[in-house]
Amino acid sequence: MAAAAAAISLPHSLTPPLHATRRRPAPPACAHSERGVSFDPGSAFYRSDSAAGRDLAVLAATLHRRHGRLDPSAPFLCLDAMCGCGVRALRYLAQAGADFVWANDASEALRPVIVANLSRFERGSLPAEAGRRRWVVSHNDATRLLAERYLRREYFDVIDVDSFGGDSAYVRAALLALRIGGLLYLTSTDWRSARGYGSRSSLSSYGAYICPMPYPNEVGLRMVIGGAAREAALLGFHITPVFSYFAYHGPIYRVMIQLCNGKDDVSSNYGFICHCKSCGQSQTFGFDELGQISCGCTDRTDVDSIAVVGPLWTGPLHDASFLNEMLSLANEWGWAYTSENGVTLEKLLSTMIEESDPRLPPGYIRLDEISRRAKVNSPPLGTLINSLRKEGFSACRSHIGTNVIKTNCPIASCIDVARVIRNLR
Ligand SMILES: C[S@@+](CC[C@H](N)C(=O)[O-])C[C@H]1O[C@@H](n2cnc3c(N)ncnc32)[C@H](O)[C@@H]1O
To answer: Where does the sequence pass through the membrane (predicted)?
Structure first.
């Protein structure tokens, strides 16, 4: 890695501003560590519960650096737009092999904490090339910083926007400052929009009308991806999701998307999800099918019984082959079966891989919904999944909910299968 550092040739404007070279305070005693990287959160906002979300980001960034870039010889540049104490920036440097990280947080009061944490890296096993920093710390509004990078034609391979609330205000500037093929890691904690309690705000932020749905947290992920897809299309690009991760603490919606060159046919993965409250069946509709939104369970279109959300992302939540590589890397690094916050990456990534089956439609069905409609006790989840698979359907768990099933089997058939399992037919 030291040799790689020596080969770095950063754009001239990425050399650090003067204030970054002032004498820095000695790092305080370490209070925390994530996957062997020590840091001190100090007074910054820091959640140890979010370590799994950071693990996923580091795995994805590493794979992207290794073989995902259009120009593998260019320095690998990461930008952490809302860095808090700098833990992500530090992990992109120390674990993902970033050649250079820009760590930014609006709060200037966090400067000593961020600088002290990043200094640990410099003083550690990988010293910076003489006279050239591997990182820089700034205190700007994220949008302004990203827009400035774009105006100076400084493009990054990975941009991380770990926002409080919604992410939508930052997406356009982040896409502009991203290299083509680069990864953008978006975080939203806007659960009110995701759960349909703020239809006006979901409309203004994500361009999507959201009302309460039985799978609100998957809707939340699709709303965030859909918002980014819309912004990318406006700029003449398209995006593909690398992975989508919902975490209960918060709650937090995180999506890693890849920026791809050229406009795509957005309508193939962008549309509406409708849920019939009468029969419990969900369906997706594209823009050209808007006039046909209804449910097969009734001849008339009962407006009150059908909930419609969108437009949002209706395509795959993850890239299965990328997730498989992330799981292999987690195994290689010894991260797969160890957990620092109760989330085992092996379990999480394996479930996400199953969720990536392109035959699976958006949404999931709660087990208690099936048992209530079947008028039987809930069948064991594993048994129901196996029975549906034997019938030729795709079925799996969801990383988003514990007692839910993702399947392309119509709910009426799920009810029949549940009754058979309970020996009622
Ligand atoms: C969720 S915390 C970041 C946590 C950190 N990324 C981590 O993983 O521990 C959000 C941070 O964004 C900063 N912030 C809020 N609004 C901002 C803005 N518009 N531009 C830049 N930073 C902002 C806050 O000061 C806060 O430290």
So the answer is: none
- The model's confidence at residue 112, banded by pLDDT at 50, 70 and 90, is very high
**Domains identified in the chain and CATH numbers:** 2-268 (3.40.50.150), 364-425 (3.30.56.70)
Q: Which helix (H) or strand (E) holds 33?
A: strand 32-34
pLDDT averaged over the chain? 89
Average pLDDT score over residue span 128-149: 86
Which residues does ligand 1 sit against, CB inside 6 Å? 44-46, 50, 82-85, 87-88, 104-107, 141-142, 162, 164
Q: Cα of 162 to ligand 1 centre, how many Å? A: 6
Highest mean pLDDT among 126-135, 138-147, 290-299: 138-147
Q: What is the pLDDT of residue 245?
A: 98
CA atoms within 13 A on the CB side of 7: 10
Q: Is 160 helix (H, G, I), strand (E, B) or coil?
A: strand
Question: How many C-beta atoms lie closer than 10 Å to residue 195's C-beta?
Answer: 18
Contact 187, 254 (CB under 8 A): yes
Residue 81 CA, ligand 1 centroid: distance in Å: 7
Contact criterion met (CB below 8 Å) for 270 and 311: yes
